[in-house]
Amino acid sequence: MQLTDASGRKINYLRLSVTDRCNMRCRYCMPVTGVEKLPQNKILSYEQLFFAASCAVAEGIQKIRVTGGEPLVRKGILDFLSHLSTLPGLKQLALTTNGVLLAEMGPALKRAGVQRINISLDSLHPEVFTKITRRNELSRVLAGIATAERLDIPVKINMVVMRGINDSELVAFADLTRHKNYSVRFIEYMPANKEKGWQKLVVPGSEILERISASHDYMPIEKISLSGPAREYRITGAKGTIGLITALSGHFCDDCNRLRITASGKVKGCLFSDVDTDISALLRAGEPTPVRMALRALVGRKSVRHELTETVAGHKIFAMAGIGG
Q1: Nearest-angstrom CA–CA distance, 182 and 162
Q2: What does the pLDDT look like over 121-146, one tens digit per residue?
Q3: Which candidate, 31, 146, 180, 248, has a CA 20 to 30 Å from the CA of 40?
C-alpha cells in the first residue's frame, strides 16, 4: 500500500502527538499565559493512538515520529513506544523532545526501540536559553544530548533561529558538528502564535548559510531515505552535518511527505493549514476501514503548499505544542 496525494507526493511519514502538555514554554511555541489545555477526556488513549498508527502504517506510512507537547511528560510513554516499535511495516521510530528528561529516560527509550531523537536546543548560553524557553533547564538538556550520544542513538539538534536573540550563535552551533556526529538543523522562525513584530525575528536560510560560510567551507549532501524537509550540508572535515529548514523563505512543500495526528485525534496535512479532519470518534469505535478511508481522503485533499512568507502569515493563531510541530 502507498499513500500518494493529488500532487504525486508519496506520504510515508507520520508525526504522532501524544500530549499537548509541556514542561517548557518556548516563546515561538506558546504565549506566556492563556494556553487552554485539552481536557483529559479529549486526549486519545494509548490504545487509540496505537490504532491510529497501525492504520497509518497499513496505508503506507513507514516512519513515525512521536511528538508532543513534550512526549516524555506523559505517563506510560515508554510502554507505548515499546509497543509501537513492534508494529509490522514500520521502518523507523523517532522521537522529538526538549531534552529535559532525556538523561534519566534515555536508556529506557533505547530499550523501547526509539531509533532516532530530535532535541530542541535554541541557545548554548544559560541566560538566552532561559529567555527563549522561560525555563532554566539548559544543563539538563545538554546532559540529555550527552546521554543519547553515549547510547549511540543518532541525535538531531533543532535550533529555531531568531534575529537579535540567538542568531549570534550560528557558528557555535555549526561547530558542534565538527567533532561530534550530530545533525544540527537551523529552522527559520515560524509565526505560529503571530507574536507582534514576528517578521523582524526571521533570519532567512540563505543568510544563515552565508554567515556560517564566513567561518567554514561546506558541501551539500544527499538526503537519506525517510528524511524530513531539511537541506543538508557537511562542513569540510566534520563528523556531523548541518541542515536548513526554510519554511518561509524557501518552501519545501514539493517534497512534503508528512501527515500529522494530534493528541485529540485531528489529522492535518500541513502544519500551517487551518483545515483538519477529526477522526477521534472513528478511533474510539475501533474499526480500521473507516480510519484508513479517512486518512486516504485527507491525503487526497492535502494542499499543494502553505501560504506563509517572510512577511505574511494568514493562518489562525495556534500553540505549536497542540499540534506537534
Answers
A1: 21
A2: 999 999 999 999 999 999 999 999 99
A3: 31
